[in-house]
Amino acid sequence: MSDKILKGPKLDHTVxxxxxxxxxxxxxxxxxxxxxxxxxxDKKESYLGVRQRSTRLALELAKRGVTSRDVVVLCTKVTLxxxxxxxxxxxxxxxxANLDPSLSARQTTHxxxxxxxxxxxxxxxxxxxxxxxxxxxxxxxxxxxxxxSGKYPVFADFVKPKPxxxxxxxVTVDVHDTCIIFFSSGTTGxxxxxxxxxxxxxxxAHSFYQADGxxxxxxxxxxxxxxSGLILLTCSFIAGGHRIFCGAIDAEKTFSTIExxxxxxxxxxxxxxxxxxxxxxxxxxxTSSLYSMLIGGTPISSAQFERLGTTFKHTNVVxxxxxxxxxxxxxxxxxxxxxxxxSKIGSCGRPAPAMSVKVVDLTSNEAVGPNQKGEVCVKSPxxxxxxxxxxSSGTFDKEGFLKTGxxxxxxxxxxxxxxERLKExxxxxxxxxxxxxxxxxxxxxxxxxxxxxxxxxxxxxxxxVPMACVVLKDKCTAVKxxxxxxxATRVSDxxxxxxxxxxxxxxxxxxxxxxxxxxxxxxxxxAL
Length: 528
Description:
- The structure is a single chain.
- This protein folds into three domains: 1-9 and 181-423, ANL, N-terminal domain (Rossmann fold, 3-Layer(aba) Sandwich), CATH 3.40.50; 17-174, 3-Layer(aba) Sandwich (Rossmann fold); 425-527, GMP Synthetase, Chain A, domain 3 (2-Layer Sandwich), CATH 3.30.300.
- Helices cover 29% and strands 25% of the residues.
- It is built from 15 helices and 27 strands.
- The strands form six sheets. The protein has a seven-stranded mixed sheet, with helices on both faces. Strands 7-6-4-5-8-9-20 form a seven-stranded mixed sheet. Strands 1-18-19-21-22 form a five-stranded antiparallel sheet.
- The longest helix has 17 residues, at 47-63.
- The N and C termini lie far apart (49 Å).
């Protein structure tokens, strides 16, 4: 059994502090350095500035009665102000949860009902969303507005100078208490509130930092609604580096930001990478500072992966696999796995530091060997504490491994390949159909911009047949038969689009760019 559990390197850091102590001490240590940069405004803030403002905010929250028992929620785009309530709440041991302003009122209502916040920091544009969602959830919370408000307290007042702020130190908490709550993406059901403790999340950050380490200048397009946002923030504090953000991704803006600020690390969801590889003037910009680019969140086609390598010739392009419940699970270390980066295209790497990974048979639940598909299961000090106010025991197997719900395998070199969500697979006749494999083929068609594949109910005997929902590129045309034949010549017989092709103007996505397969499928089936 033990030879079927693959383990990453030992973690070279021992976690003993709380998130509050970590951020406070790091900001003190690197006080004179730049901590964060708003590239859109070309504004910077030092670690000293971040510590000072987060300390003032913590004192104001404490004055209003916020303690380690409370949940503080944010709903805002990323600005220089966004990290201040997050870090200030950590100083008090309060639990932090982040919403994305692009979520619907229905989604926001559900998420707020999961955590029942004491205080919500919200951007001006999203105040109505929060008001409506609190009312729908029958909850009361103090609203604080980033910007101006004649109705609620404003963030600017929370960071005004406070008496005795120089003597402030973070409160002492149990490092195994919950400190941060993330929400699952909800692509396979209603989102759950995922709890990380101070201990588990600092392990998440140190594991990632050890596997890459070039966090001197991080360019991030992710909001703090996603685990990647806080991982990158925490890694920048480990390195004493700076985090750079510039709003929604735009190709020219991205290349110019990399050149201007000498970006060393970039994280992107696969769907966002197409904007960069299709940018015709990419060679006009110097991207030699970019040491590594991590791609993750959803599968990426081999062709697109190779395009990224061509576009970013000086960069280690790494495809990694992780999940909110456990952080980064597998990736290649650019300093040690250069050969694998070139020869194992399609692999999401080897186990990350402190990570144990196994693949179990879907029927017997027994661990399987190389090149045998099954459910990926993980065990690590990075794994979540559990779900907030909900039972999570069914998420773990009898050996304490977290069941990821992802299907994959590893090869003889211990390199992993994750191919699909367990709940997103479907059966045609006796064959398991993997939607992402067909989607990768569709994206190679010159007229296809986006595509999602799902099972279309055929009969009890046949099960479900593959159907595709496709968005065409601007000024491109194609007919259904052309798309069907393009796929048919490139896939196995059982993967052919027997359910047909539906053209739409846009596909529903989560705020991070993940396709909402279930919602898209339901909408198409209801329309037919």
